[in-house]
Inverse folding.
């Protein structure tokens, strides 16, 4: 082959090389990589970050939208920063349930999120993403909200949940699953070190410094059967009581999404007036190991038994089943940590094979004789009424996948999709089913009326 032929062959290769080099230079980190821009996709392996079922045409379309988003200035100080993959989406049309538009974002057209493997984890970058200095916050007159969350994966999702709920008066505690990947442990530890009102267990958080006992910060494992979940939330309650400026605490798990703004949550909890919000239903069979004792005396529940009636001490606890996700007044959290010792009860429930995390806190909520602030009562169970909480929204498949808008089920629960965003945005995500009294609570012959005075809202009403 002569030199002229070599030139013909090498010329187009050189063009491809320089175009590729230009793209790499364009995507190198810059001073704005705190925003997750420009550096976002450098050296990213397409096969690993996209749905393998996506066509090349669809994949190209996704990256075109990403490039447009990266080139678009995002300098408005008080607006929520969306990910590059989704910045082109018109949320207004989704919330208005524009079916034709939603069709372009669902099914084969759904948009996969791409992990930012070059996400800056410096303290300035983390703080800028969560609470930029130029953001202004209004005082929460009734106090902030504490979030106690068990986590095991998806750091960027967890950080986003902090971002949308962040306020100087709000506080966050994360109990990390010991089985989580090393990279997730490292990022969560960094999050706790960098942000002043975040505790990552078993860190000791103070205004001056944070001390971590070991590099891998988790001390126990959690699983889908609920083992150690109550322990993780208990440890978060202990850790967050040192922060004085919050009035309510929420128990959450990894993939729970907060659907209300900071100020909406504060107002909702103000209206609660000290009441706890806990899902309550009749005890589900096989949720307790046979042969164990469930009276407060045997469980050494009360730290000072001299103040407790002997009948209360010796009668078995009324046990109910409910959800982990719940909302607790600060007074209730103080009672759970300072007035009672739930260690034995927690360990006994933890011996259950499945859903061992769904009994302890709901049961303490309905045993009114125990005196927990903001408690409810077992009386409505006797009247064949449960107590549907308003902290957690769940759509059960009830054995039929067609009951789910997304036609997708996990552990019997419908997964939420973009088609439902319009409905969810209008739902009273935290509401109260009113309880009316026939007479004053202290009157002789008082009887609790558990029948709500209004029609209970239904998920289907909002679709």
């Amino acid at each position: 082959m002569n030199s002229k032929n070599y030139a013909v062959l090498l010329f187009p290769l050189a063009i491809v090389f320089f175009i590729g080099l230009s793209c790499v230079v364009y995507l190198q980190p810059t001073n704005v990589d705190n925003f997750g821009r420009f550096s976002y996709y450098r050296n990213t392996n397409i096969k690993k970050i996209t749905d393998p079922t996506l066509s090349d045409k669809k994949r190209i379309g996704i990256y075109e939208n990403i490039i447009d988003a990266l080139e678009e200035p995002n300098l408005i100080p008080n607006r929520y920063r969306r990910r590059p993959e989704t910045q082109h989406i018109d949320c207004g049309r989704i919330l208005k349930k524009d079916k034709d538009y939603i069709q372009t974002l669902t099914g084969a057209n759904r948009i996969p999120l791409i992990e930012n493997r070059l996400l800056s984890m410096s303290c300035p970058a983390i703080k800028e993403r969560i609470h930029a200095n130029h953001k202004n916050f209004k005082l929460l007159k009734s106090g902030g909200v504490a979030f106690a969350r068990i986590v095991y994966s998806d750091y960027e999702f967890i950080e986003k949940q902090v971002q949308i709920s962040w306020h100087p008066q709000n506080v966050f505690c994360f109990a990390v699953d010991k089985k989580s990947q090393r990279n997730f442990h490292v990022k969560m530890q960094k999050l706790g070190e960098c942000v002043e009102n975040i505790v990552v267990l078993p860190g000791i958080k103070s205004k001056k410094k944070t001390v971590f006992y070991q590099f891998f910060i988790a001390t126990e494992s959690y699983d889908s059967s609920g083992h150690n979940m109550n322990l993780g939330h208990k440890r978060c309650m202990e850790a967050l009581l040192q922060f004085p400026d919050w009035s309510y605490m929420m128990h959450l798990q990894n993939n729970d999404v907060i659907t209300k703004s900071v100020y909406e949550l504060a107002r909702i909890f103000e209206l609660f007036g000290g009441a706890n919000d806990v899902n309550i239903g009749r005890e589900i069979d096989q949720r307790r190991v046979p042969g164990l004792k469930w009276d407060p005396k045997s469980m050494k529940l009360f730290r000072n038994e001299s103040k407790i009636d002997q009948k209360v001490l010796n009668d078995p606890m009324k046990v109910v089943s409910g959800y982990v996700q719940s909302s607790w007044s600060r007074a209730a959290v103080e009672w759970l940590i300072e007035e009672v010792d739930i260690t034995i009860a927690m360990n006994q429930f933890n011996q259950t094979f499945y859903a061992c995390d769904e009994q302890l806190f709901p049961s303490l909520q309905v045993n009114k004789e125990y005196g927990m602030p903001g408690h409810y009562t077992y009386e409505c169970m006797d009247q064949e009424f449960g107590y549907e909480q308003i902290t957690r929204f769940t759509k059960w498949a009830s054995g039929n996948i067609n009951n789910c808008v997304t036609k997708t089920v996990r552990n019997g629960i419908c997964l939420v999709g973009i088609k439902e965003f319009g409905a969810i945005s209008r739902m009273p995500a935290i509401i109260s089913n009113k309880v009316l009294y026939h007479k004053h609570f202290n009157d002789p012959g008082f009887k609790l009326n558990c029948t709500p005075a209004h029609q209970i809202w239904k998920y289907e009403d909002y679709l």
